[in-house]
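subagent[fold] <- orchestrator: predict structure for attached chain, return C-alpha coordinates only, no commentary.
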Amino acid sequence: MRTLLVAAASLSLIASGAPAFAAPCKDAKGRFMKCPPKAPAKPARCKSANGKFAKCGTAGAKPV
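subagent[fold] -> orchestrator:
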Protein backbone atom coordinates (compact mmCIF):
# COMPACT_ATOMS: atom_id res chain seq x y z
CA MET A 1 0.00 0.00 0.00
CA ARG A 2 2.82 2.37 0.88
CA THR A 3 4.65 1.74 -2.38
CA LEU A 4 1.46 2.39 -4.33
CA LEU A 5 1.06 5.72 -2.54
CA VAL A 6 4.67 6.71 -3.24
CA ALA A 7 4.34 5.72 -6.89
CA ALA A 8 1.14 7.74 -7.29
CA ALA A 9 2.68 10.78 -5.62
CA SER A 10 5.81 10.67 -7.77
CA LEU A 11 3.77 10.22 -10.94
CA SER A 12 1.63 13.24 -10.11
CA LEU A 13 4.74 15.35 -9.46
CA ILE A 14 6.30 14.31 -12.76
CA ALA A 15 3.11 14.94 -14.73
CA SER A 16 2.51 18.38 -13.22
CA GLY A 17 6.19 19.41 -13.32
CA ALA A 18 6.43 19.87 -17.08
CA PRO A 19 4.63 23.26 -17.25
CA ALA A 20 6.62 24.49 -14.27
CA PHE A 21 9.83 24.38 -16.31
CA ALA A 22 8.43 26.60 -19.07
CA ALA A 23 9.68 30.18 -19.46
CA PRO A 24 7.75 32.48 -17.11
CA CYS A 25 7.85 35.46 -19.48
CA LYS A 26 4.71 36.41 -21.36
CA ASP A 27 3.89 39.35 -23.61
CA ALA A 28 0.88 41.67 -23.27
CA LYS A 29 -1.39 39.22 -25.09
CA GLY A 30 -0.46 36.33 -22.78
CA ARG A 31 1.73 34.44 -25.24
CA PHE A 32 5.02 32.97 -24.11
CA MET A 33 8.13 34.81 -25.27
CA LYS A 34 11.86 34.75 -24.65
CA CYS A 35 12.74 36.44 -21.35
CA PRO A 36 14.85 39.61 -21.64
CA PRO A 37 18.40 39.32 -20.29
CA LYS A 38 18.92 40.47 -16.73
CA ALA A 39 20.98 43.60 -16.16
CA PRO A 40 24.33 42.98 -14.51
CA ALA A 41 24.47 43.88 -10.83
CA LYS A 42 26.10 47.18 -10.00
CA PRO A 43 29.06 47.12 -7.64
CA ALA A 44 27.97 47.84 -4.10
CA ARG A 45 30.96 49.98 -3.13
CA CYS A 46 33.70 52.03 -4.71
CA LYS A 47 37.03 53.25 -3.34
CA SER A 48 38.75 56.54 -4.09
CA ALA A 49 42.42 56.90 -5.01
CA ASN A 50 43.47 57.25 -1.35
CA GLY A 51 41.74 53.97 -0.41
CA LYS A 52 38.66 55.34 1.35
CA PHE A 53 35.12 54.41 0.38
CA ALA A 54 33.44 56.91 -1.94
CA LYS A 55 30.28 57.18 -3.99
CA CYS A 56 30.47 55.31 -7.26
CA GLY A 57 30.50 57.92 -9.99
CA THR A 58 32.77 60.46 -8.36
CA ALA A 59 36.06 61.24 -10.08
CA GLY A 60 38.73 58.62 -9.36
CA ALA A 61 36.40 56.14 -7.64
CA LYS A 62 36.82 52.53 -8.72
CA PRO A 63 34.56 49.55 -7.91
CA VAL A 64 35.83 47.13 -5.31
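orchestrator: received. Logging for downstream: The first strand starts at residue 46 and ends at 47. The chain has one helix and three strands.
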